[in-house]
Automatic annotation (TrEMBL):
This is Pentapeptide repeat protein.
Length: 79
């Protein structure tokens, strides 16, 4: 088996990867639940077709813009 596929299809539960770095990682079709990503940084990431729900978004920024502000403006436009 190829090294790059050793973790494919695995399940991780109660794992601490604090301070880890990930590069050239495929996570297509993966699910994340009860994950603490506070202080994480993402760059050069494809978030195509990603669904975020029931999540704490305070302080989260996309391209320097607070997501809470984006959602506020969006909700105001719907009135």
């Amino acid at each position: 088996m190829e090294d790059s596929k050793l973790l494919q299809g695995r399940n991780f539960h109660n794992v601490d990867l604090t301070g880890s770095n990930f590069g050239q990682v495929q996570l297509r079709g993966s699910n994340f639940r009860s994950v603490d990503m506070e202080g994480c940084r993402f760059a050069d990431i494809s978030f195509k077709d990603v669904l975020i729900e029931s999540s704490e978004l305070s302080g989260m920024k996309i391209n320097g813009i607070l997501v809470s502000e984006l959602l506020h403006v969006y909700q105001q436009s719907k009135k």
